[in-house]
Amino acid sequence: MAGHPEPDSISAFVAGRSSAADADAIEAHIDTCDDCRRLVSELAALGAGPGVEEPTDPSALPSASNTDLGTVPVGAQESEPTMTDRPALAANVGDVIEGRYRITKLLGQGGMGSVYEAVHEHLNQRVALKFIDSRLAMEPQAAARFLREARSAARLETPYVCRVLDMGRLKSGVPYLVMELLTGETLERRLQLKGPMPVAEALGYVRQALLGVREAHAQGITHRDLKPANLFIAQTRQGETVKVVDFGVARTTDPEIEHGLSTHTVPSMMLGSPLYMSPEQLPPTRPVDARTDIWAMGTLLYELISGKPPFHADTYLAVSHGIRNKSHVPLKAVAPACPSSLSAIIDKCLAKEPGDRFASADELLQALDAVRLDRRWGLIGLAALLFIIAGASVGAVIARQRQQGTPEAEPAPTEVVPAPSPAPPAPAVAPPPALPQPELAPDAATPSVDAGPTLPAASPPPAPPDAAPPEAVDGGPKDLKPKPKPTTPKKPLNVLDRL
After folding, report:
1. Alpha-carbon span 202 to 195, nearest angstrom
2. How far is 4 from 135, CA to CA, in rounded Å?
3. What is the pLDDT of residue 248?
4. How far apart, in whole angstroms, are the C-alpha atoms of residue 277 and residue 377?
5. Which CATH superfamily is domain 75-181 in?
6. Pick the catalytic residue: 31, 35, 225, 314?
7. Contact 403, 380 (CB under 8 A)
């Protein structure tokens, strides 16, 4: 099918009057085209026909791509659109918008519009300009959604949402948004390049996205289209930061956001991307709230870890049927490395009834943080166990060496660490035996005491009174060695008396 189906063909399809060939072609087209899918939903809501019946045999339906072309992530790499009918461009490279923004590059193009890189002429600041498709600019609902997106994103003061800086309108009437320019890639692109992620990495991305979603919910804004393509991994000075983008189909309860928007979203209008839509969105039989985003975050986390969303099929109708009527396969069954507690959290996110899910993004954050804490303590426990095992191994080696015996180390020299017991006199410091001394009278021996202090090492220690004579111990001749007189405590007193 070249381009979009004719409106009459879509009306006939919704009313059930299309031929089998036309129905197959239109069904394959709406699987990849947000605009036509929304048109089918609007026509069904307005009573243009009985709607589309559920397939009796989903495997017999024609195949279709799951690619959603309704949004263009800010900062995405330039790529060729896959639609055979390109959107009409509202601006061209080189144009200066309202005398301020000079367009330098086309970043992306999709079914709803296009995104450019531009430079502020006066501030020299690089920004992103998002234009709605010129053919949709004249439609009240499309224009209202674009303005609602701008107001919603501008109210959110968090680093986890892409900031809207300004808004304007071309002379042709086409509105545009001025947004912060992001450098990086979408989570969808990261998943395509790397495949299934480790649990810790997936939790890190989802946790940052939930911080942005929590801020939106606090402002009464339900995103309604959370998916990997709408989560941008921006490279910042602090590292990688996940930013929520594209609030184009958001639902708001804030009167300031809705002020002046006379055209509101039809309650039964189906908006979003089928793989991540909650049961209450398929078909939309009741108003959605923040718990719809909880479903989408559970679906997203499931896909990041396992590689596929919990409900995937070849066609939109088969996906819709599975989301409403079938149970998903628990994450633990398809990714055994996933903690059981995390698998249970995702099960709660994917409860068919909104009341059975987490009531808020904050509740889901607390549950995921508990899983991260359990994993952290598990790693600490593993490290402690390895440390204990290593210590036990070292102790066993030391004990074995002691049993087998090891060479003893040489004793330290006495000069460095003197032994407590007195060392034997060295020959070098003993009195020279070759110098005989004259025989002194008993009365003349006393002046040798007053001749000055004598080093202990220069003479042998005094012998006790009952010790044997020196000649008896040494066995040497008497005339070669002096005879030290034994000293008694009263000897010095006798010397003093003489003086």
Report:
1. 11
2. 13
3. 82
4. 35
5. Phosphorylase Kinase; domain 1 (3.30.200.20)
6. 225
7. no
Q: What angle do CA 465, 467, 469 make, to 5 degrees?
A: 110
**Cβ proximity of 133 and 113 under 8 Å:** yes
Is residue 196 within 8 A of residue 205, CB to CB? The reply is: no
Q: What is the residue whose two structure tokens read 């633990």?
A: 332
List Cβ neighbours of 222 (8 Å cut-off, separation of 6 or more): 216, 250, 251, 252, 288, 289, 290, 292, 293
From residue 390, give the alpha-carbon distance in Å to each of 130, 243, 385, 387, 396: 59, 44, 9, 5, 10
Cβ atoms 263, 141 nearer than 8 A: yes
Position 46 scores a pLDDT of 42
Tell whether omega for the bond before 267 is within 30 degrees of 0, i.e. cis: no
Q: DSSP state, 97?
A: E
- One-letter amino acid at 386 equals L
Report domain extents, the chain.
Answer: 7-53, 75-181, 184-256+271-399
- HSE at residue 429, side-chain half, CA atoms within 13 A, is 11
Nearest to 360 by CA among 448, 440, 439, 294: 294
Output the pLDDT for position 271. Answer: 61
Helices (H) and strands (E) in the chain, counts: 15, 11
Class in CATH terms, 184-256+271-399: mainly alpha
This prediction has a pTM of 0.60
Inter-CA distances, 349 with 173, 280, 308, 355, Å? 42, 14, 16, 10
Nearest-angstrom CA–CA distance, 168 and 177: 7
CA distances from 384 to 254, 381, 389, 462 (A): 52, 5, 9, 66
From 211, 209, 215, select the one nearest 231 (Cα to Cα): 209
Reported as half-sphere exposure (CB side, CA atoms, 13 A), residue 236 has a value of 14
**Residue 175: count of CB within 10 angstroms of its CB:** 19
284's CB contacts (< 8 A; 6+ apart) are 41, 267, 268, 269, 270, 271
Contact assessment for residue 131 and residue 137, using Cβ atoms and an 8 Å cutoff: no
Instruction: Tell me the C-alpha distance between 114 and 106, whole Å.
Output: 8
Of 248, 245, 252, 246, residue with least CA distance to 287: 252
Question: Within a 10 A sphere around the Cβ of 267, how many other Cβ atoms?
Answer: 12
Whole-number pLDDT of residue 76: 37
Position 273, amino acid? S
- Whether 86 and 108 have beta carbons less than 8 Å apart is answered as no
pLDDT confidence of residue 148:
82
| Residue 450 known to be catalytic | no
Check residue 55 and give its pLDDT. Answer: 36
Give dist(CA 117, CA 100) in Å, integer: 13
Extended strands (E) in 141-295: 164-169, 175-180, 184-186, 221-222, 231-236, 239-244, 251-252
Residues of the chain with confidence (pLDDT) below 50: 45-85, 263-268, 377-378, 381, 408-409, 438, 440-458, 467-468, 470-478, 495-499
Range 130-157 burial, b when 16+ CB lie within 10 A, else e: bbbbbebbeeebbbbbbbbbbbbbbbbe
Question: The tokens of 158 are what?
Answer: 């968090």
